């Protein structure tokens, strides 16, 4: 692989202008396609074939599209001490309902005071109008949302308290923003410090942005042909930017090392792409495996998210292997700091620059490997303690609106007027001959179940072949009691003669998705870890090195999710991450964090241990190979981790609830993995194992050699001497 990649790097350097033009053409074509072919994204999550999802579709068929359309609730509350039925307030409420019905895109708007179907509480102090749109979730345009919010603002002039909530006013999250820009700026600063040259830092960031641009534009084009979640492009952009910067960093750093040793520019590029590029391909493949493996959950929107993000990773790898060498060829020796260019040119004519082996990280490696038992135990105990909150982790698909928003105020008014469970109603669909009678009989038995606050009268369809029964729980929509009520309803209504009863609604959908994800998580973990172990065994020709890396990853996951639960569920340090409300984590968080962090953790494992393996292959003792490889790779891994942390952390304070907890878990997970697992646990464990770390059973020695270190290149370029550390902090 190293030889093939070296030739690709050399080819890209030789034909640099053609490569640059090709990528520019791809970027322009992607932009044109995104403008002309893009479609709408969805903010809803469901699983085709599950009872709750199928029932929602059936409601649309049995009761008309309006019943299945996306809606908003406009909540009205009378002034303190008054009611909604006074002549003045009643006129204002009825007038508001009429205004809402005339808004763009609105199919219907109910009147809270309609005698035939009132929607007010018993005290007549709080009511709501259900505003239904002729659109699916995510299909209400920003202009239609603005018109609704304007109508709500005008209604407040009457003295009523008016707020609005519901799917119809949920904003589709956008890619890019001030908070994300801060993360990019921090990454640029880290790059500038690492390289000691602003132009190289800018080049690194620019090539990464090209990869992200191509990936996100491709996803945008795909929205015109398939239904994608609104979170998909954000996840792809976040992950693509982080790995794109890191992959370029690894190749550029190796190129600078070869230049400092005296290699000619084009030859140096070939060596860098052949060696560091091999590690990039291996690392990228582990990320792709982890993301593509999300299909085992059997949830289409999760599979689409994984495949879209994986495609962005593939683009980032291709950029690192082709576009980066082309740009490096244009820069020549300018990739080195000005004061070191002359030394590099002199080394080309005379002798290689001497290796530099001292520095803080070199001392760190010596200390950790010398006190390996203590270091190993401290790392395990520290990560284990942070992992404790995982035991109380709860997940849900129902997102709590941010404090101070109109959605949060509307939910609070509904909870105060109708009870906590009103914000998470459960709908039961009865179908078949006698559905209306069955629903009426079930209303009596259902009202006796635990956690049931109210059972509304059945609502039949036009021909009486179906009926809806709305059940209001006593508890809120994200509580364990409400989840249990969904299970109790299914058990109670699962065996009706001649009538099929299906439990649905957003609360039931959330429960179904959470249960499916919980069931898929062990299978997913086994698949991803198993495939990655096979890949790492091929790379390092060892059994114990991959096992150390994977076990370290499990500690990373525990600590990452533990810290996330402590902040987002328990509320610890909530102000630091600009968290408005606490509650269960988004159901997608655990499986996405596991998939993404596994790929990134294996990135660091490959880049760090491959240099140790390289030193060991060239005859260094086990202890010396650990220290040598650590000294060579650790500065780059530290810079890469800081960059990745900055990019992920930039998505945390923005306030987008879907991505906030995921970004936090990834950011904190990167810190734990890079600075505790890879910088302490791995070198300590390998030092403890000694020569056994590189042991491979005889029955596995037939496995092909992947040659990440570029041993085959030695035949063409001579023995590989220990490279000079670029940016070695001393």
TrEMBL record:
- One Pfam family named in its UniProt record: MMPL
Q: Where in the cell is it found?
A: Cell membrane
| Top-rank taxon, per record | Bacteria
Question: What are its GO cellular component terms?
Answer: plasma membrane
Q: Which UniProt keywords apply?
A: Cell membrane, Membrane, Transmembrane, Transmembrane helix
Domain (SSD): residue spans on this chain: 183-330
Q: Which PROSITE patterns does the annotation name?
A: SSD
Q: How does it sit in the membrane?
A: Multi-pass membrane protein
Q: Which family does it belong to?
A: Belongs to the resistance-nodulation-cell division (RND) (TC 2.A.6) family. MmpL subfamily.
What is the protein name for this chain? Putative drug exporter of the RND superfamily
Per the UniProt entry, what species is this protein from, by scientific name? Geodermatophilus aquaeductus
């Amino acid at each position: 692989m190293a030889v093939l990649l070296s030739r690709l790097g050399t080819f890209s350097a030789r034909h640099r202008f053609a490569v640059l033009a090709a990528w520019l053409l791809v970027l322009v074509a992607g932009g044109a396609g995104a403008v002309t072919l893009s479609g709408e994204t969805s903010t809803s999550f469901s699983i085709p074939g599950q009872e709750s999802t199928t029932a929602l579709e059936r409601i649309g068929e049995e009761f008309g599209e309006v019943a299945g359309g996306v809606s908003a609730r406009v909540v009205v509350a009378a002034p303190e001490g008054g009611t909604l039925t006074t002549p003045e307030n009643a006129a204002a409420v009825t007038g508001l309902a009429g205004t809402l019905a005339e808004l763009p895109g609105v199919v219907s708007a109910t009147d809270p005071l309609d005698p035939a179907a009132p929607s007010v509480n018993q005290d007549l102090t709080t009511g709501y109008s259900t505003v239904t749109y002729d659109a699916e979730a995510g299909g209400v345009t920003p202009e239609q949302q603005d018109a609704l919010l304007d109508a709500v603002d005008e209604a407040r002039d009457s003295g009523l308290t008016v707020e609005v909530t519901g799917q119809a006013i949920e904003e589709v999250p956008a890619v890019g923003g001030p908070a994300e820009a801060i993360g990019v700026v921090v990454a640029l600063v880290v790059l500038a410090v690492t390289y000691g040259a602003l132009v190289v830092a800018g080049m690194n960031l620019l090539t990464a942005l090209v990869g992200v641009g191509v990936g996100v534009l491709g996803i945008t084009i795909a929205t015109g042909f398939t239904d994608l979640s609104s979170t998909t492009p954000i996840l792809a952009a976040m992950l693509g930017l982080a790995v794109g910067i890191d992959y370029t960093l690894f190749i550029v750093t190796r190129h600078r090392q070869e230049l400092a040793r005296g290699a000619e520019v084009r030859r140096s590029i070939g060596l860098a792409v052949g060696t560091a590029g091999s590690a990039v391909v291996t690392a990228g493949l582990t990320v792709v495996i982890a993301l593509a493996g999300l299909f085992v959950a059997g949830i289409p929107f999760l599979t689409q998210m994984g495949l879209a993000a994986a495609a962005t990773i593939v683009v980032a790898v291709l950029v690192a292997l082709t576009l980066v060498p082309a740009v490096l060829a244009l820069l020549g020796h300018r990739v080195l700091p000005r004061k070191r260019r002359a030394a590099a040119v002199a080394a080309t004519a005379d002798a290689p620059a001497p290796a530099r082996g001292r520095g803080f990280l070199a001392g760190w490696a010596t200390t950790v490997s010398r006190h390996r038992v203590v270091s190993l135990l401290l790392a395990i105990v520290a990560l284990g303690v942070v992992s404790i909150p995982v035991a109380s982790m709860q997940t849900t698909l129902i997102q709590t609106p941010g404090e101070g928003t109109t959605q949060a105020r509307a939910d609070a008014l509904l909870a105060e007027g109708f009870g906590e469970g009103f914000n998470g109603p459960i709908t039961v669909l009865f179908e078949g001959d006698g559905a209306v009678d069955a629903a009426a009989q079930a209303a009596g038995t259902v009202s006796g179940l635990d956690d049931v606050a109210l059972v509304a009268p059945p609502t039949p369809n036009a021909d009486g072949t179906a009926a809806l029964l709305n059940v209001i729980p006593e508890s809120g929509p994200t509580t364990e009691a409400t989840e249990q009520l969904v299970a109790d309803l299914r058990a109670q209504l699962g065996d009706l003669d001649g009538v099929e009863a299906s439990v649905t609604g957003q609360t039931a959908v959330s429960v179904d998705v959470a249960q499916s994800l919980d069931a898929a998580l062990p299978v997913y973990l086994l698949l991803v870890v198993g495939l990655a172990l096979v890949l790492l065994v091929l790379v390092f020709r060892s059994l114990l090195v991959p096992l150390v890396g994977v076990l370290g990853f499990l500690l990373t996951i525990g600590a990452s999710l533990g810290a996330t639960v402590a902040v987002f569920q328990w509320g610890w340090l909530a102000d630091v991450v600009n968290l408005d409300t606490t509650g269960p984590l988004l159901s997608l968080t655990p499986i996405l964090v596991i998939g993404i962090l596994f790929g990134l953790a294996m990135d660091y494992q490959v880049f760090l241990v491959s240099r140790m393996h390289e030193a060991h292959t060239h005859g260094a003792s086990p202890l010396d190979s650990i220290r040598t490889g650590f000294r060579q790779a650790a500065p780059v891994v530290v810079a890469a981790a800081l960059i990745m942390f900055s990019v992920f952390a930039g998505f945390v304070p923005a306030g987008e609830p879907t991505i906030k907890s995921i970004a936090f878990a990834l950011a904190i997970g990167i810190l734990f993995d890079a600075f505790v697992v890879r910088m302490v646990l791995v070198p300590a464990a390998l030092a403890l194992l000694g020569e056994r770390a590189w042991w491979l059973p005889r029955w596995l020695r037939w496995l092909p050699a992947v040659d990440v270190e570029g041993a085959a290149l030695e035949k063409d370029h001579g023995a590989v001497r220990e490279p000079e550390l670029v940016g070695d902090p001393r």
